[in-house]
Amino acid sequence: MFKRMIAVLAILIAGTAPALAKRVALVIGNGSYEHTVQLPNPANDATLMAAKLRSLGFDVVAGQDQSYSDMRRSVMEFAKKAYGAEIALLFYAGHGMQVGGQNLLVPIDAKIEDETSLDFETISVDFIMRQMSKDVKVQMVFLDACRDNPLARTLARRMGPSRSGNLGSGLAEIKIEETGGEGSVIAFATSPGDVALDGDGSNSPFTSALIRHIDTPNASIQTVMTRVTGDVYDATEKRQRPWVNASLIGEVFLNKRATETGTEVAALGNAATSAPQQPAASTAAVNTTTQSNIAWEREKLIWETAKSSNTVADYQAYLSAYPSGTFADFARNSIKRLEAKSQVASIDPAVTPSAATPSASQTGAPTGVVSTLPDPQKAIPGTPETEATLGWNRTARKQVQTRLNLSGQNVGRADGAFGPKTRAGITAWQTANGIVPTGYFTAAQYALLTTQTAVQYTAYEAEVKRKQAAAAAAKRRQQASRSTTPTRQPGTAGTAPQRVPANNNNNTGGGINPAGAAFIGGVVGGILGGAIGR
Fold first, then answer.
1. Which one-letter DSSP state was computed for residue 204?
2. Which residue has the higher pLDDT, 268 or 236?
3. Which residues of the chain are in CATH 3.40.50.1460 domains?
4. Apex CA 30: angle with CA 403 and CA 37, to 5°?
């Protein structure tokens, strides 16, 4: 019944739903740097921002942890799509620097050993903005790239005192006249020249506030940024104030919706008899508003129907009718949750959703998960979206890296940052298990990895605890030894002090029990060294 209703309504409104103006966005988040301090949040920031912009009707070119060549390709793809757009938007999170007033974005493979590296290892913001000025009405730039960058300090030392004065902390102000048009909004995470905070959560303070407000119905972008500035200022205890420079002819809305007054007119059904007489000049505007409100009411009805049935098919029917609708993001998230539950259920019906997606505190394997995935599950590829639904924090990501090491895939030290080496390890593990190799997990795939490494991970935890206990015991013995060392008594300069005999009990040392050592060595082998990250 629900499916038929949705299908009929979709056909009725297919020709009446208003088409959105062309909107294009470039979203990049770089955090897994190979030659400098890694950042935990940019990849998360970019993932959420890309999803939010897609829900607002943007054609998004997105990238995470991109090398120099990757970033160049992304900018080229964005430039081709942005030509003639109503709105072109750039969002970047990661390391950035300014040299001589020029803002540079830093790919993950940049070394920046000297000034020559700047031209061949970084991407200029000015270069990207030139691609956004080709017959584009409104340009928007959001830079969450004002973090403290050790590469800049290294470069300053190489440049010497005479030229390092051109190297500033944070990013430099971008003047509106440099953008090639008057319809521009440029926003930094903090004031020019200042350093922004990466934040303690999974997203930076600036990106968190931007995502929270950017889709506010009927709020202009000017109003949105005022609210973002206030939120960041409060969240950082007045240590960080975003900086915005705008030159817009009129207000720009990213989520324009009909007003309540217009909804009341539409609900009356006959505006000619029920509404006050309108001046002739405004009749067309009233008709347009009424049609828009009717379309909005139909969209809400379809959404409510899909939500009440809570099936993948009905959510997909909504998305077919409204691929960029108000609830499109919620529909996609619902589909992901339902598919994740379906994947786990197809492995073993006894497995609950919470067991399929372990929290950071869960270290054992989900009960009842078999050692192999059925063929249909192998065909379901992992994506950044399917992995994002698992909700891993930094601790959970460390656990994933440890399990990959224990499975025989060397991903290096478990630091919680999923860089190229970790992605390569995931890809290799997927290939070894006959799964579509994408470098990203699904819920079912991680359940399989957890089961495969259950014994090794238990041994790994036991070894970690043993080492910690041995270190604590050694520290206590050292403290006890210092407290029992005798001091010389006055008047006995020629007498050697009496010393406390050493403890010769072999069972109190930090050595490994032979049986335990054999077990650990047999199960974990040489993998533990990489997993523990010495």
1. -
2. 236
3. 20-247
4. 75
